[in-house]
User: What shape does this take?
Amino acid sequence: MRQMDAARWERVQDLFHRVADLAKSEQLRILREECGADMKLHDEVMALLVEDARADSLLDRPVANIADAVLNAPDAGVRAGARFGAYTIRRKLGEGGMGVVYLADRVDLGSVAAIKVLRDAWLSPGLRERFAFEQRALAQLNHPSIATLFDAGTLPDGTPWFVMEYVEGVSLTSWCASRASTLQQRLRLFREVCAAVIHAHRHAIIHRDLKPSNVLVTEDGSVKLLDFGIAKQLDVLDDATRTRTGLRLMTPAYAAPEQIAGTHVGLHTDVYSLGVILYELIAGRLPFDLSDRTPGQAEAIVLESDPLRPSQAARLPAHGDSVPAPAVTRDEWKELDVLCLTAMHKEPGRRYPSVEALVRDVDHFVRGEPLEAQPDSARYRVSRFARRHWRPLAGTAAALVAVIALTAFYALRLADARNAAVAEAERTQQIQGFLMNLFQGGDEAVGPADSLRVITLIDRGAQEAARLDGEPEVQAALHETLGSIYQKLGKQERADTLLESALRQRQAIFDPQHPEIARSMVALGLLRADQARYDEAERFIRDGLGYLKQRLPPTDARIARATTALGVVLQNRGEYAKSIAVLQDAVRAQSGPARSRADLSASLTELANSYFYSGNYTASDSLNRIVLALDREIFGARHPHVADDLINLGAIQFEAGHYAEAERYDREALDIISSFYGADHQETASALVMLARAIVSQGRLDEATPILRQVLATQERVYGKSHPRVASALNELGRVAQRQGRLDEAEADFRRMADIYRNVYEDKHYLIGIALSNLAGVYAERREFVRAERMFRDVLRRYSETLEPDHLYVGIAHARLGRALLGQRRFAEGERESRVAYDLLLKLPSPPAPWVQFAGTDLVAAYDSLQRPADAARIRAEMAEGAGIRR
Amino acid sequence: MGHPDRTNAPSDGEANARENLDVIFSATYEELRRLAASVRRSDPEATLSPTALVNEAWLKLSATPQVGYASHPHFRRIAARAMRQVLIEAARRRNASKRGGGAAMVTFTDSNDAIPSTAAELLALNDALEVLAQVNPRQAMVVESRFFGGFDVAETAELLRVSEATILRDWRAARAWLARELRATS
Assistant: This one.
């Protein structure tokens, strides 16, 4: 590209405009006059004139044509024979909303499976999220009527794929039509579909695209629910907009009114779609004939008109799409009309409150018992008619979809406790994605700033959950889910209320030592650990674990998970030796053939963490390396789990004072995380903090500052002002400020950091100690040694309650206390503290060079002042030899 | 990329305005990318018109609290930039795959690429526009708005608050210069 300069360009343009519309000879004459000897100017203007006369450049093509060429790339077809993990592609099965599905062989097992590959993954992070959601939803759901997830991964270009059970069957309606099924047979199939949906709802997943083509019936007559692709609400909205420009027509036949309106999607939305399916099965046709309607009319019909009763619809003459209706008696019709129309009531609040309730009425019907549902009163129908417009219910219902959708990520299972950071990130991102969708309906009352706060959304979810009074099991599951989300968001009180409520509800439903109760107890135990109420935490988890051991075979994964949870609690309360023993148990329990490698990796990670906190960096390092290899195998080389492992390895290097190595690990991790989540994401921000602290420790302060400001902004935006992730950004900012001599700023940062930790963890947590220790460091630098001393002593007291006596941090606190005492010229006392620190630090398996240096220097200074030259010389000599420290 | 213009930005404080612009921009960008993908999926025959995409994005996003208070021209101005980014990103990917980027476990077919040089040309145009923006930001903006955003002369004049004659002159000179740059790089 040639260089340009503004003045030159002005001159060129000027001449160009002067001559552009003249005759050729005139042009040449003027240019000759004006340019004189400046042949370059002459040539440049001539070149412009040449282009001006032509019209064949890119800029002359309609941009639509260009967009076609670059966007309408040929389909990214995957060739037969391509390999995905252990699977080899055989042929394409079909294309769904988001991806292409292939039939694949697993050669070693001689089995077949379906592989779904996300198309156009690069186009939108939103697509990737929704695809990943489907994958995680399937991974969570373990039900005979839901296709099982086998494997998942990412292509080198970032395209995600997953492998699931291959289902050979026909759609629900085709099955019934081809076999001329009886009413009883249809209801049996319908019940199976409901059972699968209930299973999903218990895991807080809303299907949102229930329709007969997503329900396959296999040769042996069993039902499989397919396609948990989740962007259903969004798709309906798309179609609404698309129809305006006639790009695509869509029949919203199974979509609930709230889906068409673009708001308020929830469990009740699936109830509606099930109602439509039931309607079609018994009436032989859809409730609304939308075939000759414009999309706008179709939407209006779904929103406004009442369907014919199924009994009436069944009497209409058959048409092309109708399924032969089964034989139904007059009395049966009466009941079925009520059942169906209750399920697909326009107002979510008047439908069956849950699929369970719907199934109960199906059972009542089959057994000839009275239904729970009541037909709408005449008065209600009149008032509804009078209102003319279906109006969305206000506020509260809106958020449930997001909450429920996001809970699919929610690692309620302890297996995922180790991946909480990743799960949390995905979740938060998902929430925000959903919020965008939710508020596209135009909820003006909710401003953007507030509406994007995750916590607001969860609050609404909690309100919604409170309405599920009649369904204690579902409510308990939701409470547990929401409670755990609050916990991750640092809202411990609200978490407490919900998790307690989940436990109470389960205690009311199940027998006292039921695994579900145990699960609640373990969840509550982990919350207690977060609240630093360790005795209770340990009791809950030990009791829960006890129940599980009584009820389940020793190899059951739930036992291993609860054991891991116990290890985590012990780790949190600083009982590293015990924690290590327990986690070793958990690891051993998972050595059998049935083990889940992901669970194993989780347990190993916690074990590595316990070693890390206990200061045994060597053991932690080697375990983390095993986990790294394992995770690379399970998740692929560029998965966030792998990045976590790298960060853990970097942290070990950091503690040992090997900042450059730490930086290398952090950069590798960051590369993975930022390409996975994008640049402006809280996970990326967290990885950046790790990188920044390695940079700060190497003295490259100017490089670190902008990174950290960005990080702080991201974390505050996502988590609000008071969250541990905000605190860790503040810590690094404080360190930079202190090093650059901006002590007031540093003090403010560390204070805020300490306040956040106090807020989140209650008063007893070693992290508060770290914050206060850094704050005291600022005092010391201001030469406010008395104040610093007092604070370091407070820090040591906190550590003594939370950490092992020979912990690295204890050593650091002694060293810093020693320096505060030397500053007051209290050499004898200072010597004692520095001595303790020096000895402690050197006894660590990998002594941290900078801190050994720190304590050693002070010790020498103290001996010099105390006139103990021999001691001073000895320490000097030890330090000169490097005191066995690897640098 | 320069700053998006803020002619019509909401006036409740400079910081707020910046933030709002960012929100609009990213929402628009995402929406355009998504629409581009869904149009492709739903109807391979459909001709993608960026103007249509921008209009659809507007229909949809104007109902949102984030975008709702931006005026339509303001939105379109930002959308033009987003469109440029969508197309450039797509062109980069096409170009990369041509050079054998992203090989490994799975081979993607890349057979019936009708206009092989469009992606490269688009990237060259993007580079040239960057250079132009250095010496004459208004001209670069005129090109971006007209070419990527589908603004007509009157709309561009209104947007940039200059006369239509100026827009025409800017466009004519910039077009000729860019065309020559493209020829030089191809």
User: Anything to note?
Assistant: The mean pLDDT of chain A is 77. The CA atoms of residues 835 and 859 of chain A lie 7 Å apart. Residues 183-202 of chain A form the longest helix (20 residues).
